[in-house]
Amino acid sequence: MGRGLGAWSLLLLLGLPRSGAGDISTEKLWMVKERVVYGDDSGLPGPRASLEGGWGSGSGAAAPPAPPPASGLEPGMLAPAFTLDTLDGELRFPPAKEQRPRSFIFQAFTNKSGFLECLWSCQASLVALVNRLPQRSHVVFLSFDDSASTDVRWMKRQLVGVMEERLKNISMFKDLLSRLHFVPIPVYALGNWIPAIFYAWRCQDHNCGLAQVAFTSPELKLTVVAKRLDARYDWIMKIWRSAPYILRDGGDGCNISSRVKGAVAFISDEGNCSYFTKVINMATSQALGVLVYVRPGLPLQDMNCQGAECLTAINIPASIMHFQKDVIDALR
Ligand SMILES: *[C@@H]1O[C@H](CO)[C@@H](O)[C@H](O)[C@H]1NC(C)=O
Ligand SMILES: *[C@@H]1O[C@H](CO)[C@@H](O)[C@H](O)[C@H]1NC(C)=O
Ligand SMILES: *[C@@H]1O[C@H](CO)[C@@H](O)[C@H](O)[C@H]1NC(C)=O
Ligand SMILES: *[C@@H]1O[C@H](CO)[C@@H](O)[C@H](O)[C@H]1NC(C)=O
């Protein structure tokens, strides 16, 4: 108990590129560099829960690695007992004798993850849970962050909103709601064996960790770090390299632009054109990558292709992130 958040903030600070580092070119433009932060407790369970629970398509995470023996628990073992305080009262395992057998899926949120933010904001993934959660399966929703209490209330609102639209049958609505458990206490503070499992059985391959983008400018002596969500579809195969890139304004990306050649195109989500059109325009303009930012107040979205678009391979990486006023001001 008590180690989780300390580890996070420390790692985040250590990971920051130092401003004014010697390897930054003299060009007075912002640079963009990909990076991923890992923490001791970065066991983001989203992709794994989705595979087992049939919820969405996951992020391509590898099979769960074998946990170190220190956790004392291994896949296939009978889960030890637990008691959790939820928004709707106490949840106990094993259940009282008269109850039907149940299986539990645990999912912990952190808003430091663009993937989880999108998963919980996007109608399609919420609908998939509402429509496809197997009968008798229960899901326990938690948060890694200190804001767990507000996080899980928000998660519950997101899900209940979709359930109200989709589940007109009251008894089905009540049955599903009784199988969704929202725990308003951060994972590190649960005080039972569950945090150890989250930290030990963590995702260890690509697409794990908290994908970020760091902007630095020798001129402004400022570093801006933002979470990013990588496009992860068949049509975008390239991943970011870890060396710095030059960043240039590509407008809304609905037109070809000679400015972005040899640079990363920074484009808005506005304009009457799809993400596919934006990315293909920037690839045609010989950009090395694309960063789309969403307008203030909007959540990160999946950058998806439609129909025949998905057959076109694109050979530059693309990610989506939040609006960054400092970066935009410096570019324009
Ligand atoms: C998550 O973070 C984004 C900004 O990065 C913010 O707009 C959003 O409100 C946050 N969501 C929650 C549930 O805290
Ligand atoms: C609601 O769903 C239950 C279980 O599937 C079914 O038995 C019941 O008839 C349904 N009620 C209505 C009003 O459709
Ligand atoms: C962008 O392209 C569209 C159609 O492809 C055109 O109508 C529009 O004028 C262009 N805008 C700029 C600023 O070039
Ligand atoms: C472009 O605008 C038309 C008409 O307003 C609309 O039907 C279409 O969905 C828009 N396309 C995109 C990609 O926003």
Automatic annotation (TrEMBL):
Listed A to Z, the keywords are: Signal
Q: Where is this region: Disordered?
A: 48-75
Source organism superkingdom = Eukaryota
| InterPro entries linked | N-glycanase
Q: Where is the signal peptide?
A: 1-21
The protein here is known as Uncharacterized protein
This protein's species is: Scyliorhinus torazame
Classification of source organism: Eukaryota, Metazoa, Chordata, Craniata, Vertebrata
